[in-house]
Structures are given as structure tokens and as C-alpha cells.
Specification:
The structure is a homodimer of 246-residue chains. Chain A is an alpha+beta fold. The first copy, chain A, is 31% helix and 30% strand. Chain A contains six helices and 15 strands. Chain A is globular and about 50 Å long. The relative contact order of chain A is 0.16. Chain A binds chain B through residues 92, 95, 99, 102-105, 109, 111-117, 120, 122, 124-125, 128-134, 136-140, 146, and chain B through 95, 99, 102-105, 109, 111-117, 120, 122, 124-125, 128-134, 136-140, 146.
């Protein structure tokens, strides 16, 4: 078993005897603003791992496949090894965070239609926003021609919108509004686009449907307090959710 | 005669008796990095006015209409009053400037196909890059619905590519490569999209086809010296250009 990769919130290990799989272990760390702000709380890795697991399982019922294969202990999951796209995809249902700041728009303003944004994954460059045309014309997806890149981005946009619709419903079911979220994708050995990484309060902005209270990483980014409590509550709600069955 | 607007490099005055026209007077000032860097040189306004005039005249032969109506003295032109779109449009044929920095790509790298970028015109926000979907979903074009905005941006993209092809030829004719350029557009009273503002070494990156020497505002931005000489030389070449007639 080898440590293949260590990110800000996760470690990825090989799985002996299963070359197409890797073990993704969730750390207790919390980072924000391209890791300029760091923190942690006990059990954070365990909570996020369980949240991500529940979300991946619920997404299957909405026809969305992820890299998730099976749980492994409290804070890890076995996932398919993918060739990752060097993009972070953000989907927005309301203006918040960096978009509110960059464009001078009040946080919370609803958008006319969900916005899908691509960010070029590069820590040294602080993950800059890129347009689809920049990704295509600059060749930011390795080994793909301009027309292949165009096709992948069209698929990715459709995937993002479908994922957004599914996640809106899943979070709504537990009393939370999905304001925006970030996800990553990769292709498996058959060339299929799969959801990767995680869907958790680290990667989603979640506002309580009744109180507008924040149940996400903004509690940490903005020093609002109650970070651990919010993550615990999100997990508690997902665990007790009956999936909307009548 | 009233001063209607004063920008970084131009003043715009009303024209008495002609309510649909305005007089655009070019100042001697040079600014860069959202006006954090300021300079000027004598006759700069005159030179840029004459360059812009020649380019607008040449563009007509390529089927591209601008706001230009007629010259007025050395450093002014009479133009149609337009309702301006709050966007700056950038077209790139090679990576340079802010794009090279933001994405960590070497300056001068050719692109696979010309890139059209939109920037939201707002000095306080330093003109942020926006995607077409952001412009549409956030309602950044006043009074237009999401589908109307979509149509305008499609027209604008087509216009940008046609303008790029024309400008590549016009500058090539005088021994200069068009690396990238920025333009602005507005709609006239009949709702037609017209090229506005200026096309000059302030708004284009122009590299000598033989020597790669820069003949544009980068000489000022990067303290390369010879700023006035470069602008004078661009005007000299345009004036002696026979328009490629055999």
C-alpha cells in the first residue's frame, strides 16, 4: 500500500491486488482561500467521509455515477482510480462567495439560470476561472484536440446541470438549500465521465431552508463559529433522511 | 457643447444641432493596470486619433461598421452616439499579458483558434473576466432577458471573430502581427451592433513581423522606452500603406 497523493483534505492510497481502485482517506483538516487559512476539528474527516458516502449513494438513484465503490472503515472509501480532468467545476444557484466579490453583486441574489464555471486546477495560480474557449484553444486538457476538448466540455456542462438538479433535491430533502457547489470529474478506463472527489459541506454552500443559517465551510472561512456542530448536523440529517419515500 | 463623459484617454462632447452624434477627443494620457500607472507624451492623442481614423476607414472595406462618422481637427472625431454594452471584448491570437500571467503560459504561445473573452466594465472591480453564461444568468446587460442576452453575445462573438480577421490583415499589411486586442461595442438607434471606442496601439498588441519588436502600449506598461517613437511609427506605416492595392 503506497500513498499516491496527499491533498488538502484527503490522502489517496493504492489498494493491494486491485490496480483499478484506490483508497481515499479523509483528513480532519479544513482549508480555505487556497490553503492560506488552515484549521481542523476532531472527527471532521469521518463526518465528511460519511456525508460523501451517503450523497454518492443517493446520487445513484438519480442516475449519476461517481467513483465510489464501497466504504472502508469510518473515514475512508474505496473508489475507482480515474484520470482526473485538471478542472474544478462550480455550479451556482445563487450568487455567493468569490462571485459576489468579483462582480460586486449582493450575496444571495438568485441567478436566472444555474451557472456552470470552470476553474483551472493549479495551486500556484490559485485556480483561475477559465472560459470553455480558453480551455479548448489553449489545450488545457492534456492529449485532447480542440474538438475533443469541446465535446468533453459540452458533456461536462450537461453533467454539471444534471448533478445540480439531483443535489438540489437531495439537500432540499434534509431542509437545506444548495446555493452553489464545486465538483471534480475524471474518466474511468472505459472513458466514462464520473463524479470524483467529494460532495460535502466543504464543497457545497448549504443554507437552512427555514432560517438561512449556513451549514457549510463558510462558517470556517468567515469565522462564524459552530463549524463542527454544522457538519455534525448535516450528517445527522442525511442519516435520518428517509429519501423522500412515501 | 457639453462634456458628456471623460475617460482615461478620451473626452466625449455633445455636438450642437446633431443629437445623434458626439465628438470624441483623444487625450495625451496613457494609463495601464486599471489606471494605477499613468503617463503621457505630446501628440499622443493626435496620433491615436489619426490611427483610429485610418483603421475605422480600412475596416469599412472589410465590411465592418464602426461609430466613426468624420474627422474633426487633429485629435477628434465625430461619432455616432451609441448605447454601449458594459463589456470589453478581448480577442487573442497568441497568449500574452494578463492571460499569460493568470494561466502560467509563456508569452507568445500561439492559440489553437482565436479566443474571444468578455470583461465586465467596472473600474472599481478592475474589469473582471466573465463567461457568457455569467453575463446571461446574472443579467449583466441591462434591460435584456436571458435569451436576448444570449443572442447579443452570439452576435458579439461572431463580430469579434470577423473583426479579428480584418484587423489581422490590416496590421499585416503594415508589417505588424496582431497578437491580441480589446474592443468595445454599442448599439445605434436602429439596434445595430457597431464597433465603438478605438483601435490603436493602446488597445492592440502589435509585434513587428520581422523583428518581434513591440509597437504598442506594452512599451509603456513594461518601461521598455521608445513609447512615443513606436506610436509615431505605427501611424507613419498606416499613412504610407497603399491598402494592398496591386
Amino acid at each position: 500500500v503506497t500513498l499516491l497523493y496527499e491533498g488538502k483534505a484527503k490522502q489517496v492510497f493504492s489498494v493491494s491486488g486491485e490496480p483499478d481502485l484506490v483508497r481515499m482517506e479523509f483528513k480532519d483538516s479544513l482549508t480555505a482561500f487556497n490553503a492560506q487559512k488552515k484549521g481542523d476539528f476532531p472527527a471532521k474527516g469521518m463526518i465528511n467521509c460519511q456525508i460523501a458516502t451517503l450523497i454518492f449513494q443517493k446520487l445513484i438513484r438519480h442516475g449519476i455515477e461517481s467513483h465510489f465503490v464501497r466504504s472502508e472503515g469510518d473515514r475512508a472509501m474505496i473508489v475507482k482510480q480515474l484520470i482526473m480532468l485538471p478542472l474544478e467545476v462550480v455550479v451556482r444557484n445563487r450568487v455567493a462567495g468569490s462571485l459576489a466579490e468579483r462582480l460586486g453583486i449582493a450575496e444571495g441574489k438568485p441567478v436566472r439560470a444555474p451557472i456552470v464555471e470552470f476553474y483551472y486546477k493549479n495551486d500556484a495560480l490559485a485556480d483561475p476561472l477559465v472560459t470553455a474557449e480558453q480551455v479548448e484553444s489553449l489545450g488545457l486538457l492534456p492529449h485532447l484536440s480542440i474538438s475533443q476538448t469541446h465535446e468533453v466540455l459540452l458533456s461536462l456542462q450537461a453533467f454539471a446541470k444534471k448533478l445540480n438538479q439531483a443535489l438540489i433535491k437531495i439537500w432540499q430533502q434534509v431542509g437545506l438549500e444548495l446555493v452553489d457547489f464545486k465538483f471534480e470529474v475524471g474518466t474511468d478506463k472505459d472513458g466514462r465521465l464520473l463524479l470524483a472527489d467529494e460532495i460535502t459541506p466543504d464543497s457545497c454552500r448549504l443554507w437552512d431552508l427555514k432560517t438561512q443559517e449556513k451549514f457549510d465551510k463558510d462558517r470556517f472561512r468567515r469565522d462564524l463559529g459552530g463549524v463542527a456542530e454544522a457538519y455534525h448536523e448535516v450528517l445527522r440529517r442525511l442519516k435520518t433522511d428517509d429519501g423522500g419515500r412515501p
